[in-house]
Design brief:
The strands form three sheets. A four-stranded antiparallel β-sheet has the order 7-6-9-8, with helices on both faces. Strands 2-1-10 form a three-stranded antiparallel β-sheet. It has 480 residues and is of the alpha+beta class. Helix 3 crosses helix 15 (410-440). The longest helix is centred in the N-terminal third of the chain and has 33 residues, at 103-135. Helix content is 50%, strand content 12%. 26% of the residues are buried. It has helices at residues 6-10, 55-64, 74-95, 103-135, 143-157, 164-175, 186-193, 218-227, 239-258, 268-290, 299-308, 329-339, 342-353, 369-378, 410-440, 447-454; strands spanning 40-46, 49-54, 161-162, 207-211, 214-217, 318-326, 361-364, 383-390, 393-403, 444-445. Strand 4 and strand 5 form a beta hairpin.
């Protein structure tokens, strides 16, 4: 049985150090100091199997969390150690059980191996291109420039044959997609770029181009389009741009064909990613078997959870609104005055309904109590504002619908009760199970080594990421 475990499954992100785990407890008074090698901070033992946590492990975990290694506090160091001990306890527990991968797990593992092999092949191609340019005195290193040059050289060496009629129809389909505007916010831009060109069903298997003896079909192109994150998709307006995009796809396909993994990954970091993913699958299977499947979800249990506090399941007060932001108070007041007439309000509401990239905002008392209460007071087709949000930013709100807080009987709230109960109970039981594993395996912590790690710095610093994000590269896309 395939379990959907909601938040509790996400909690197994502790394998990547992504959540707060049970912190390693300090040694009890009177206990002898743990005698471990200088590089080892903690140890778990199950018979002949031993799992250790080293200083290097904790430093690497800190970098993954975006923490400055030289600025770890004692609490942060202990929390990182707890996460690492959880991971190793699961490793020991799952080693004694047969693998329980699902078909989805196997497919994900295979896809990751292919993706990593593709990334390695692409990085190797970049290195060759940089070396070639350096020998010629060219210092350009931007991935987009290098990638375009690599693609163009391959297509010049082995030129594809095009079906210009099919390319023309595709160019028209891509050009018909809404183009992002300069003043679009990220949400509006993403909505536009999420669209897929409308292609006739009869064209799905049409050959666009033949390259290196292989046909590239319309459905192959659409698959490449869907691989890209929405915000990375270019707006294609003509035949030349469509051919450029297809040329990139042809080069990517050639690299993928050359990069089929024949054995263990050549790069240690890739091997570690595959191992981490495999551990995650094993840990999830263990948690489903020993924790999640034991959580009761019958009507009596859920009713008891509901009755503990029926108001917890109330639907919050909420409103559906249309916002406009203007640069001057005068303009905002003029808009508010126009909206206070039914004709003006109907016109704005109809205008937004006709725009596929514009959807009404939903606000509720949990996220913005003040605006929700004012929207309730204004009522449907009422106006809130103008309000000054910042210098030269004035907000006017048209209320489309507004609903006050409403209690829900158990039958109506049951799905929400079940989800919240199951997620919370899974998390609680998983934490208890992990603590039990660590006790069973005789957790040992070298407090002196942990203190030395925390003493390496004096002030904890948190950065958005451990390293600068390089420019996105369209050759890479989302996956290989």
């Amino acid at each position: 049985m395939r379990w959907t475990v909601g938040l509790a499954a996400v909690r197994l992100g502790l394998l990547a150090g992504a959540i707060t785990a049970g912190a390693a407890g300090p040694s009890r008074a009177g206990e002898a100091a743990v005698d471990l090698p200088d590089t080892v901070v903690a140890r778990l033992v199950d018979g002949a199997r031993t799992e250790i946590v080293t200083v290097a492990d904790l430093r690497a975990a800190a970098r993954r969390r975006g923490l400055a290694v030289a600025g770890l506090s004692a609490g942060q160091a202990r929390e990182l150690l707890g996460t690492q001990l959880d991971r190793r306890a699961l490793r020991l527990a799952t080693a004694a059980e047969p693998p329980a991968w699902t078909p989805q797990d196997s497919a994900q593992h295979r896809d990751l191996a292919l993706h990593l092999a593709f990334e390695a092949a692409l990085d190797s191609a970049y290195a060759v291109e940089r070396a070639r340019r350096s020998a010629q005195g060219d210092t350009v290193t931007h991935p987009a420039v290098l990638g375009a040059a690599m693609r163009d050289r391959e297509l010049a060496r082995n030129a594809p044959s095009w079906d210009d009629a099919v390319v023309g129809r595709l160019a028209a389909a891509f050009a018909a997609l809404p183009a992002p505007a300069a003043d679009d916010d990220l949400v509006q831009r993403a909505r536009k770029l999420t669209r897929v060109p409308a292609v006739a069903a009869a064209d799905s298997d049409a050959v666009i181009a033949t390259h290196a003896g292989n046909a590239f079909l319309v459905r192959d192109l659409l698959s490449e389009w869907r691989r890209l994150r929405a915000l990375d998709r270019p707006h294609l307006e003509d035949v030349r741009q469509v051919k450029d995009f297809i040329g990139t796809a042809l080069y990517r396909r050639q690299l993928r064909a050359q990069a089929r993994p024949a054995g263990a990954p050549a790069r240690p970091a890739d091997a570690q990613r595959l191992q981490d993913q495999a551990e995650g699958f094993a840990a999830t299977a263990w948690a489903v078997r020993h924790v999640f499947s034991q959580v009761p979800r019958d009507s009596v249990t859920l009713r008891r959870e509901y009755d503990r506090d029926p108001s917890r399941w109330d639907l919050p007060a909420h409103a559906q609104i249309v916002r406009r932001h203007l640069s001057s108070r005068e303009g905002a007041e003029a808009l508010a005055t126009r909206l206070r007439t039914h004709a003006g309000a109907d016109s704005l509401a109809a205008h937004d309904r006709a725009q596929p990239d514009r959807v009404p905002d939903l606000v509720d008392e949990r996220g913005d109590r003040a605006l929700t209460e004012r929207s309730l007071a204004a009522g449907p087709l009422g106006v809130v504002g103008p309000d000054s949000l910042a210098e030269s930013v004035w907000r006017v709100v048209l209320v489309l619908e507004a609903s006050p807080r409403r209690s829900r009987p158990f039958d109506e709230a049951r799905i929400a009760v079940d989800r919240a109960w199951f997620d919370g109970e899974c998390e609680r039981r998983l934490r208890a199970a992990l603590d039990g594993l660590r006790r069973r395996y005789g957790e040992q912590v070298d407090e002196a080594a942990l203190a030395r790690l925390a003493a390496e710095g004096t002030s904890p610093r948190l950065s958005p990421s451990a390293a600068p994000t390089p420019p996105r590269d369209r050759l890479r896309g989302r996956s290989g």
